[in-house]
């Protein structure tokens, strides 16, 4: 008979809104598998490679904005989850990790699939719980039901993140044939209420005073999910009150923010230094921006974050303000608006600082657009051009996943038109190339939108097991920039001058995705020339049909030339 | 300029005999990469997928019988090593794990490729060292040189295993163009002398007395590397002194040991209970053997092991004897021999207990051989038959790697002829399917012998990135048993009766290896029928030519029928 507390654990997950689970096959986790699959309100998928399974779950959780369960057998299976768990932790994406285990007494006894699973994810989970192997004592049952409540509550509390429950199980693992599972109506569901962190009148007054005292206030957003309400208030702060708002592509600020800073920030732009810097969100892609701010430190730097970690990306932090950015900026808008109304228009914030940023941004944007009009792009296909054309063409309301390494960097130069409201994602928690395809697949499985993935060949083949399953949805679109190696190493000065470049940094590899596409039954397009690229783009961009890969094969040396030309050609 | 202490670290590795390194591309680890690649006495390979890289290193270290270095960049890269690190830990294979890291001050600062790397492998390394980011203070240099000595010494000390050094590095990572690296002749090499654990005369006398007091003494070997001297002494103990010696396929005891126990041990064989059980080596494959011994507990159970963990696989342990098995058995042989010489032949150990085991083993072996003579094997191809034929045919002095799940179980029933001295390996430390191809590849890269891998489809595709590199040697031979899912789940009673069998346990998958073979440039053979199988076997078994895959596609339902028939047909 299936252990009732395990059935209850699954019932509690469902009651608490965790209705999706990715299961990897195994025997030790069979009781969990059976309870998850048979639960009427839980949708399950079976993914063999645990590394991919966990990234798929993360991609789903990101779209669903709630935890997804991953469930695996005992032994090294759990360790294959670790890369995705670390990414989810730093990207603050909720996951419920259920690892089946052998009971404690079997650890390190030379008896299969048993490793040290307690706390196996180290500091990369919000908490690691462990239940006993006893499923009968009333206190044990109390512990299990309490633990799963605790885990889901914790995963959902800001900053969200992965939570682990290690679950030792003894044989037998399987219910009798045709045994009915009883999902108990009587399980304990313990709610943890959402709260809002707010600022007292007094505290707010001092903040407002500071803001009004500075002429050069820069607001900058790091990685953030698309939030229309936040976008709206920030847009007003920029348009009506002259605060420059800056955001990388992954900040998802869908209006005309300063977004070409990667192009124009350099040694000549120290004059843009802010007096007060207000930041929110997670990491920034732009190295130019980080270098600029670390050199030109703000007098005050406030970071809006509910995270207890003191994160001082720009080495200038003076205040942590643990509130939601939307709350803060709405309050700011309201009070500044009121102050202006009270004082009449004369007191309006001077626009000179915003103008300086806008002037630079406009120039950079124009440079970018002009760059791609040059004739040479029509002669030999280069990846930068191909990415520009495709990012310009992907339809409104799509999602765009950017793989790490060059993909995310190229895309941050190019951006997407804000009015198309394309949500942009990237695994910038740990910036690994290890799960980019799986993450995009997970996203595609949890939305009706088209999901585009921009990815280089190393990241693509590294994670090609993402496509080794029966669930590839029609809305997945992969733009594969294949320069047969890690092109980024040729772009940066250090490695490009070493004898080891091709073999140990770029890691030249010969694969194309043709066979992978065939195996996984995706439509496949391959372009090596400008003509092929233009001819095939239309078919690839067709909204209809099944999942597609557009592989763009270019020469790494030539790509480097083009990119260096692009970087060298801009003058502020 | 490249940091001299990093160059020295590499020089010390080489001086201490660690002359092989698998590097995964990255920027943070560039100083290590460059020093490793340029060292005249270190052989380096570049493998992009860190999960595969670490298993390849493990396969190499197993053959080389000394540590192999793995080296990766910062961030989630290190976590991809973890499955292989856990396997190496439990299988006691030495590895030197060099993870580049960002300096401490950059952890959790929303700035790329930075996770909590300190102690990242938990209890699955013998020790985790960490050096500082300071490479200039004399004490820091002393610490680095001491640490690498300590790490290699520790990896090489019984029980051997993986040792981790976390290495924080600041920019710049790259030497100037054409900069010469100076491998210092003056580095500190600190030797740790090998010792032998021996037993005092008094202790040995009491042991010998116990042995002589029991009539039913069973010697059983768990997983062990092939050791001709140990084999020779055990053979004499069995042949001349009537001790039954039992070993699974992975015990590598290359003489006529009791090896068909998986077939004949059952409820009817309680009479084989030993009074004294002497074990050595690591894990046992045979579940029948474990069940038999846990039920029929020996009065005394001695386990020969240098490991400080108290490992009580059969729940009967009474004495841990921390000496090398070869020392123990040579001493036993010598003293028993002398005692007999002194007493005359009358006192010879009675052979009845050995005979009981031998009788059963002979019967089981005959049953096995007869089973495969049946006509039905010629009608429809089944995997058990195909494996039998191929294991019988693989040439003497090859190596055989057994993937986990059904492959290792089938092979343990069938075995290989001892006189062929085929060394047998399997990842039975954690029994995961996650790195079986990579491990075999690592083995093939470090021996001139032919290396056969017997593997099922789930394990094969899980780890197909093993073949995504430029190093596939000609001596690799893959026998791929493709039943399009995890056949093991159909074989065992529990899952085979569940509605979730195909989707969530067996995990039906449609891939064949044809495209993988093409991409990786291996010869490829595919058999679906008995005729095809026989026709292609010869070509596959050809010693010459390049690496080959022989894919045997069979029906999972039919395989299960055959295997059940095999299991049911034997009567003791």
UniProtKB/TrEMBL annotation, chains A, B:
Subunit structure, as described in the record: Homodimer.
Pathway, per record: Quinol/quinone metabolism; 1,4-dihydroxy-2-naphthoate biosynthesis; 1,4-dihydroxy-2-naphthoate from chorismate: step 2/7; Quinol/quinone metabolism; menaquinone biosynthesis
Family of this protein: Belongs to the TPP enzyme family. MenD subfamily.
HAMAP family: MenD
Gene of this entry: menD
Originating organism: Arcicella gelida
Coiled-coil portions: none
Lineage top rank: taxon: Bacteria
Protein name: 2-succinyl-5-enolpyruvyl-6-hydroxy-3-cyclohexene-1-carboxylate synthase
Role according to the record: Catalyzes the thiamine diphosphate-dependent decarboxylation of 2-oxoglutarate and the subsequent addition of the resulting succinic semialdehyde-thiamine pyrophosphate anion to isochorismate to yield 2-succinyl-5-enolpyruvyl-6-hydroxy-3-cyclohexene-1-carboxylate (SEPHCHC).
Chain ranges of the Thiamine pyrophosphate enzyme N-terminal TPP-binding domain: 9-115
Gene3D superfamilies xref list: 3.40.50.970, TPP-binding domain
